[in-house]
Every structure is written in structure tokens, then in C-alpha cells.
């Protein structure tokens, strides 16, 4: 007889990429997860995974079994969550990925009161600036800032997100204040490398216009981009949730070049075709109410 614990272990190992990481997520020992995998394979009469010291790969049988196994695990989790909702509570596991700076500055402080009010929710929050694959990596949802480009995701907007063109007063005193988009060509820019060279996009009557200053420094972290701008290294295009406090304190000044950066959003996205759980909807609703629209962190709010 196939035991559901083995199916859960198998799906977790595939999504995590290793037995040790799956054990961490399941809060079990590696030996327990390995035994459950072996028992599942004995019940099915075939190998599901090729195991080496460096990696795990799916066998042909494992590939065939994975889709239905994943669906079974998700259905059980959602059924358990629905039962909790019927009893008037939100419960069960939920796994969300979010960017580093926004997670530290705003998402965490917004979520902590929600989790305190719903102690039966088991949240795993993975903070990472890389673009995760929500479906294949086993996330219930991802929270991101910026343009929405993955058509396989169902997107819920949490709040608008304005980006500010900013620089330190010292830099503007030395290099001059740009008054038009063309002036930016003569300035130094601090760029977010995860977005590539076309990051500075502005709305004009003719459509989106990409502008690029001379590279001062490229960084893949928003906190450090802000710090580099405060240090006077150049101009940066930053979300208001990062730059807003520094603008209010006078450490950075917003620059008006006649056109606004393209609008962006803080959003939550979940895989297409997967029915979102009541607890995921509750998290999204709570974040909308907490962030507000326009958001509380925007100095022009």
C-alpha cells in the first residue's frame, strides 16, 4: 500500500533538489526522508530517483509519477486548509518567495502581525533577489516588485510602486542637476544589475524611452544601490520603498527630468491552473490593507 508520507517526501525532494533540503523543509531528519522514499519505491515496484553523491535526477518512472504526486500533495494541503477555514481558522503550510530589500523593510513587518493572529499557519519565506520558477520550485506564490513578464502566473496587485530618480545633494552640487532626459547622458549612473542595461525606462508621448548614463557602479542589491547614491557616486533609479526614507531625511533628492519612470507594482503571483488556498488569499488581502495605495512608504503618498 502506498503511504501518503512517502508521496510527500518524494515531491519535497524533487522540489528541493536534495534530500537534506527536503528534510529541512519538512522538519524531519534526512534518514526519515530517505526511508520514506525507499518505502514508496518498494510499494511502486520501481526506482523514482537516481541518487549520486552530487545530485538527484528523476528516472522515467519518477517523471511519470511526479505530476500526479504533486497534484495529490497539493490537494491534500488544500483540503486540510479548507477544513481549517470551516472551523473558522487558517492553518497549514505556505511557501512564499520575496526579494531581499523589500522583504526586510516592508514584507516582514507586515507579515508578523498576521502570523501572530493566525498561529496555525506554517509560513516558509524564502528571501532572494533571483527570479524563481514558482511552479517547479514548489512555491505557493512569489512577491515581486517590477514589471510582470511571466504569462504562466496569475497576478494579484498589492500596491502601486513608484520609482524615483535620485542623487545625493553633494553629487548634484558637483555634477549639476539634470533637467531633461538628454542630460542624463552626461551623468554617472548606479544600476541594478539584475535588470540589465535597459532598466532606466521613462514614459514619453512617443512611448517608453530607455536612457543610460555612464556606468559608475552596477550592484545586484537595492540597499547597496541606495548607499552608493547617498555616498555621492552617481544617480540611481530606485523604488520609493527603498529611496523614500533617504529622501525624507534629505540624504537623497528626487530629480525631475520632465518624464516619469514607467509605472510598476508590488504584486503577488501564483502558478496558473492552481487553485489558490484561502490562507494565500488572506495573506494577499492583509498585505493590500497594510501597504495601502498609494503605499505608505512613498514620500509623495
TrEMBL record:
InterPro entries: LysR-type_TF_proteobact-type, LysR_HTH_N, LysR_subst-bd, WH-like_DNA-bd_sf, WH_DNA-bd_sf. Keywords: DNA-binding, Transcription, Transcription regulation. One of its GO terms (biological process) is DNA-templated transcription. GO terms for molecular function: DNA-binding transcription factor activity; sequence-specific DNA binding. The keyword Transcription regulation applies. Residues 2-59 form the HTH lysR-type domain. Transcriptional regulator of the ttuABCDE tartrate utilization operon. PANTHER family: HTH-TYPE TRANSCRIPTIONAL ACTIVATOR TTDR-RELATED (PTHR30537:SF5), HTH-TYPE TRANSCRIPTIONAL REGULATOR (PTHR30537). Belongs to the LysR transcriptional regulatory family. This is HTH-type transcriptional regulator TtuA. It comes from Rhizobium grahamii.
